[in-house]
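tool_call: predict_structure(chain=1)
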Amino acid sequence: MHADEIDNAAELEAFNLQLALSNRNRTQMQFTGACYYCEEKVSIGCFCSVECCEDYVRIERAKQHRKVA
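tool_result:
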């Protein structure tokens, strides 16, 4: 059994999406010695706790949604 044109198109679209996602620019956080969220001193990483990391990600995501609308 052969794939029809719709199956081929869906497969190509999935491939292109995966290719675009794998080649997107990702911003890298630089170590500053301070938590990116609360600015508490840290010796490794970018956040002093999991909670600060989650809050930072949540706020940054909200900022991105505000830019789109």
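agent: The radius of gyration is 20 Å. Proceeding to next step.
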